């Protein structure tokens, strides 16, 4: 390749299959059936790549655009875990190109109408813990394959509509299903329609009100506030304890913890060697 005719092109694909092509060249490029457009204001910092198993490290940044990467999509998590490939391309002949990065998007931050996304290489997965963790509490996530619980069951979810919202984090409902107080604490809230559709938050408190109503408080305000009449889905919370799995969810057969594992205080007690052998 000739250095004076080199540019970069990168392809981002979301988990739902939506694809976008970008380039830092001043005109569009096309290869592999994708158009790489320059008009989204996206650029990438110099790539840092280590030898061996070192983690590749870089960032992509650009302006938020209604046609490309929108603030609402970012806040809704639609770009989370999107895959990314980056090439060096001879813009005079796109057939002459070299793949220099393959990985995905990591942490995405937003400020002043722009975004910045961390790029994570394929070796990032080598930093993840492997195998099971031996701990009294469950290692599964509620509703995942290990847990096996069907969160669509009416006993574990509720779909009210927004009636009132205070300080962006407290939702109040005048009527609520027959759920015990605290049923949704440590659970999650998902917005099903409206401008905030797809946004989700972690539930901090679930308080039964004296008049039969309910107050659901989130740990953090949603990026776009739901409006009165928008539908929500509340998912029950799990504190990972064996008692909760057995009594609240009736799912102890799938419990992925070790509730009878001795604690550190028991193992380290003076004279434990003789008494605990």
Automatic annotation (TrEMBL):
<dbReference type="Pfam" id="PF09931">
    <property type="entry name" value="Phage_phiJL001_Gp84_N"/>
</dbReference>
<dbReference type="Pfam" id="PF09356">
    <property type="entry name" value="Phage_BR0599"/>
</dbReference>
<feature type="domain" description="Bacteriophage phiJL001 Gp84 C-terminal">
    <location>
        <begin position="182"/>
        <end position="265"/>
    </location>
</feature>
<dbReference type="InterPro" id="IPR018964">
    <property type="entry name" value="Phage_phiJL001_Gp84_C"/>
</dbReference>
<protein>
    <submittedName>
        <fullName>DUF2163 domain-containing protein</fullName>
    </submittedName>
</protein>
<dbReference type="InterPro" id="IPR011928">
    <property type="entry name" value="Phage_phiJL001_Gp84"/>
</dbReference>
